Amino acid sequence: MKSITICADDYAIAPGVSAAIRRLIDERRINATSVMTLFPDLAPEAAALDAVAGSAAVSVGLHLTLTGGYAPLAAGTGNGTLPGLNDLILQAFTRRLDTRAVAAEVEAQFLAFEAAFGRPPSHVDGHQHVHVLPGVRPAVLAATRRHAPNAWLRDVTPAPAALHGLDLKGRLIGLFGRGFARDAARLGLATNTGFAGAYDFSADHDFATLLTHFLSGVPDGAVVMVHPGHVDDPLTARDPVTHQREVEFEVLHGPQLPEILAETQTRLF
């Protein structure tokens, strides 16, 4: 049996997503979640999460969010909204990123997490994997070392056997993250030992088949990213990924998951 982290991203993006993730934690169907800290209902969502995750071996991490058009926590960030992903990537690779503003926003999100939970995050990753980008990466590693030196960071280098087809998305994410585990290790910070879960969120995919492939292909100590949730008005207003969250929830919540875990010789707890 191999021990894998199945991490539900985007906790606190919307009540329906948070409720779905809490239910999966309570049912011991996932063993990690990553929390967004930008939205005004963070405190009650944090308390509700602690109520179900506190007694379980669940990693509660910080989902650093630097894209999406949301209002940032740090004053003076950009034009008052976070950029789109493509804009951030372009700025990062053309060295036009305002690294001071990035560092200030990363710091503000760490502080917001600590204020809501009363402790540092158990792990650190990034919404749309921005934590590995040039100009962002140094700020994330430095802030993690200051605030959460015992946390692990998400290395997004894909496990080769977990790639599906050409998997351009997974390969591109891995390219962006090249050297991330090495950079973290230089600062004494830990990372996972494999990654899977990237796909285009279209309804063309059978998520149960995808999840089986991901879990089969990753090594012991890997992270498999998932995005379960229930669709509600706040989610629809904040994020384009909606219906597929319901699909993922049904697989993770239903009778298929124990069969998938047995088939792939995977344990969570």
Care to describe what's here?
- This protein has helices at 15-26, 42-53, 85-93, 99-117, 137-147, 168-176, 180-186, 207-217, 233-238, 243-253, 256-263, and strands at 2-3, 5-11, 32-35, 59-64, 123-126, 152-153, 190-191, 195-196, 223-226, 266-267.
- With 269 residues, the chain is α/β, with parallel strands linked by helices.
- It has a single domain (2-267), classed as Glycoside hydrolase/deacetylase (TIM Barrel, Alpha-Beta Barrel), CATH 3.20.20.
- The strands form 2 sheets. The chain has an 8-stranded parallel β-sheet, with helices on one face. Strands 1-10 form a two-stranded parallel sheet.
- β3, α2 (42-53) and β4 (59-64) form a beta-alpha-beta unit.
- α1 packs parallel to α10.
Question: Secondary-structure blueprint of this entry?
Answer:
Elements: E1 2-3, E2 5-11, H1 15-26, E3 32-35, H2 42-53, E4 59-64, H3 85-93, H4 99-117, E5 123-126, H5 137-147, E6 152-153, H6 168-176, H7 180-186, E7 190-191, E8 195-196, H8 207-217, E9 223-226, H9 233-238, H10 243-253, H11 256-263, E10 266-267
Parallel strand pairs: 1-10, 2-3, 2-9, 3-4, 4-5, 5-6, 6-7, 8-9
Helix pairs in contact: 1-2, 1-10, 4-5, 8-11
Structural class: alpha/beta
The main β sheet shows up as: 8 strands, parallel
Identify the CATH architecture. Alpha-Beta Barrel
Helix count, DSSP H or I runs of 4 or more residues: 11
According to CATH, what is the topology? TIM Barrel
Mean pLDDT: 95
**How many domains is the backbone divided into?**
1
Q: Which outline best applies? A: globular
Query: What is the end-to-end distance?
Result: 11 Å
List how many beta strands DSSP finds: 10
Low-pLDDT residue intervals, each spanning 5 or more residues: none
* Order of strands, widest sheet: 7-6-5-4-3-2-9-8
SSE succession? EEHEHEHHEHEHHEEHEHHHE
Fraction in beta strands: 5-15%
